[in-house]
UniProtKB/TrEMBL annotation:
Gene3D superfamilies, A to Z: Vaccinia Virus protein VP39
Family annotation (Pfam families): Methyltransf_25 (PF13649)
Region Disordered, annotated ranges: 210-229
One Gene Ontology molecular-function label: methyltransferase activity
UniProt biased composition (Basic and acidic residues): 210-223
Residues of the Methyltransferase domain: 49-149
Record key words, sorted: Methyltransferase, Transferase
Methyltransferase listed as a keyword: yes
Keyword Transferase: yes
Protein's name according to its UniProt entry: Class I SAM-dependent methyltransferase
């Protein structure tokens, strides 16, 4: 398997970020809102943060830029994206990547954390989990998140199941924002990015490992793209305070607080 240079990994992550913006024209705004919430709600300048479904570490790197004393444990099961993150962010002592499947029972105990987690975050990742997997993942998370700890999830979460009319309006707002943002042309999409990865011999070993894992996976169920599915799963895991902190169309920052004593907010 080829060893990635930092420069090569950074180039691929920059390209990843651009293709993600094609689906999220306000991606950086959502990142900023999420990091504001971490900074205000963690209760300490050196929080322990879990990044669930971290990809190549785009959110984790931005968190450390704002909160350099934080410790971030970034979790994903994609060997190629993890390799990019590790190579690009090797200089960040507060960041460690963990190769774990959030759909597998016991993932939280494998982390062997030395203290309870202050905040768990995720962006554009957890909708991939089927409802049963989402419920199991939140149950695991509740075992390591401290009382009063925060969960923050930025994702496209729809309301089609409870309000079709509002769902259509949210989609229109999102689509118009996308057209305005990319009036001069869209960036490459998800499939084009992965096709380019497949054509790069430097990434061939990682690509093969990714495909091997995908073929061996035995997970079933449809994606969880409805807001109500996530809210109900959080309630089932014991979270009682749940709401949207930021929204633009169907792009939301969903927040939940684990019951228990809460730290003072930092304004």
């Amino acid at each position: 398997m080829s060893i990635l240079s930092r420069e090569t990994a950074q180039d691929w992550i920059e390209r990843w970020d651009r293709q993600q913006e094609g689906y999220l024209p306000d991606r950086e705004e959502r990142f900023t809102a999420l990091i504001d919430a971490v900074e205000a709600g963690a209760g300490r300048p050196d929080p322990l943060v879990l990044d669930l479904g971290c990809g190549p570490g785009s959110l984790a790197a931005r968190l450390l830029d704002r909160l350099p004393e934080a410790t971030i444990v970034a979790i994903d099961a994609d060997p190629l994206l993890l390799a990019l993150g590790r190579a690009a962010h090797a200089d960040k002592s507060g960041l460690r990547f963990e190769d774990l499947d959030l759909r597998a029972a016991g993932w939280a105990s494998v982390l062997r954390l030395d203290r309870p987690v202050d905040v768990a975050v995720s962006t554009t990742a957890l909708h991939w989990l089927p409802e049963a997997g989402l419920r199991a993942m939140f149950a695991e998370l509740s075992l390591v998140l401290r009382p009063g700890g925060l969960f923050l999830n930025g994702d496209h979460l729809g309301v089609e199941d409870v309000s079709p009319a509002l769902a259509k309006l949210e989609q229109v707002i999102h689509d118009r924002a996308t057209r305005r943002r990319f009036a001069d042309g869209m960036p490459e999409d998800w499939r084009q990015w992965w096709d380019a990865v497949a054509a790069d011999p430097v990434l061939s070993g990682l690509r093969d490992e990714r495909e091997r894992r995908a073929a061996a996976a035995d997970h079933h169920g449809s994606e969880s793209g409805e807001l109500s599915t996530h809210v109900n799963a959080l309630r089932g895991a014991g979270f009682t305070e749940i709401g949207t902190l930021w929204q633009n169309g169907n792009n939301r920052l969903l927040a939940a607080v684990r019951p228990g004593s809460q730290a003072n907010l930092t304004t």
